[in-house]
Each structure stands twice: as C-alpha cells, then as structure tokens.
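SAMPLE LOG
Freezer: B-3
Tube label: C17
Construct: single chain, 364 aa
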Amino acid sequence: MRFKKGAAGARLRKAETTGITTYSTQTGFVSEVQGPNTLLRDTVFGSVQVMDTEKLEVSTIMGGRVIAPFVMKNGSALLVSGTVTKTATVEAPNIRTKMTFDPAFQFVRKPGVVNFATAAQIGGGYAEYKQRELAYMTSMHINAEEWQAAMAIGVGVIAYTVDDEEAFTISNPKPAANNVVVTILWDDPDPSLPTPDEDFYTAKRLLNAQGTGHQPNIALFGQAAAAAFRHLMVRQDGLDRLYVNSGRIDLTTQFDVRGAIFMGTFCGIPCWEYTRAATLNGVSVPMIRSKFVEFIAAVPESEFKRYYAAIPEVVGDREILARTMRFSKEWSTPDPAATYALVHSRPLCYARRPGASASFQVTA
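STRUCTURE (predicted):
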C-alpha cells in the first residue's frame, strides 16, 4: 500500500504499523504476575521444577525413623532396606484460557484517562487495559495452583472435570493415622472440656514420627475451626497474640497479604485463619475445610513440589515446546476485527512426603 502524505498519512502509517506483542514478551509478563492470596502455593509448595515433558513421573517417599543395627567388632556389615518409593506417571493438568479484545473498545474512556485524550493517551489507555485483563486471566491460573495445593494438603486428592464430561483424579493421600477426629470437639457445649493443647501435641508427635522428623511449623484453620478456637482461647487464655517481635524475624505481614489472618502462637506453632474460597465450576470451594485444622511441616525435607509440565504450542508458522511456568501469546483476525490473548499452563502441586501434614477435624 502507498502511504499518503501529510498528517493524515502519518496517523495512518502509525496505525498500520502497530504490532502484536511477541509471545516471548507476553510469556515473560504472565510468568511474573503475582496473584493475591497464594499462601499454600508459595509457603508450602515453594519448590518449583519446570519439566521437559507433559507427563510427569512423580514419586512418594515413605520411611520412618529406623535405628541402625549393631554388629560385633570386625563383623560384617548388615544389609538394610532404604525408603519405600511409590512411583506413578501423571499427565499434568492442562489449563488454557483466552480473551477477546475488540478494537472499538479504544473509544471507551478508561479510568485515569482524561476526557479529551490525544491519540497517544488513547493508545496507552487501551494497552494498559489489555495488560490488566491479561493479568486477571493469569490470576485464574494462579488460583488453580492454590486450589491444587489446598487439595494436596487436605484430602490428598486433586479431582477435576474437563468440559463437564471427562473426569481426572490425582490421588496421593496422607497416612491414615494423619487424619484425626479429636476426642472432644472444640465446639462442645461445655467449653471446659476441649483440650486443644493435647490435640496440638498429638499433631507434633504424628509429624515428628514421620520420615522427615520435623514438627509442624504452621497450623491453618478453616472458618468454623478458627471460630471455635478463638472462643476457647478467651476462656483458657493460652494464645500468644504478639504481632510485633523484638530481636527475631516477624513474618506476619508476608502471610497477611497472602490471604491469611494471624491469630497467635499456640504450643509453639503459629496459627493462621485461612478462610479464602475460590469458584470451581460455579461452586464456591474453601481452600481449607471449615471444620479442620491442617498442621504442616513446611520444610525442604518434606518435599512439597510444584511441577510445571512443558507446553506444546504453535506461534505463527512454528511449532514450539515452551518450558516455562506459563505461556502466553497474542494474535489478531482481520474480519471480524479482533485481538486475542491466550494463557496456557500445566501445573501440578504434589506432596512427595504426604506424612508431612496432618488433618484434624475439630468441630462437628
């Protein structure tokens, strides 16, 4: 096409040469988006591993605290068994979403843009709007990762459906002994009967007996469990509610911004109310079950892993295999005139040592 001269021609050249964001730039953007309320994902499943395949060979490690056998002086070494590992091949869940951007939306004034905007201001406002919507779409993927982490910690099963037809289940339950119903429920009509301190020490003993040998360093409360616990603490007064510490590191602010409410320290374990919920298939699902307290040994030895499988994609006329946490691209269609943005991810939160957490039902 031959460009016209003058101001009109300059505007036309500028419009015709505005390009689509490259997939490498867009992928870098969505991989750096920080979603709100990601307590479990970041705190427990903070170990990230990006894979080269779509199928993951995941393993569960089981092994208790065993004393080495004694032998006579100059005697032969005794053969001992190692940890027991169960291995399974799992196809990583596939999350693929897209949004449509109508070029006519450029005429809609965006928040923060003046009433009589210049061409540059209009273009800048439209670009900012697209980035905001892309970040929101990415937060949906981050919400799915947090939901996976919650299911892996709680019921030990990640179950989902595809197009309301095909169902997928990834099961990795914790040992049966780590699913506990307390002897006296915390919402008992007689508030003098429940013994939350004994329940906390039971959780310590359970996790300490596992292969990692670590005690829980975080307790996450569902809504009903947190309400019953606070009611008991008013009477029993065993909760250290200090928010500001002198001479030691205070991480309460970091947890607060991730969706948790700090209640205090009880029996040496920081207690957090985590009542965040997300919408799954149109149904609101709590991250932590309302009646439960989840005790977690969130240490490297517990091996809570967050895997990202490779993503097969097509960019232009090329087929690629993206080894990244999330992939994104943008493309356009001439008729009808529209721009599309896509975000694709394949995350899997997996507890290699499921015995490093314990679920306590504390209310009826």
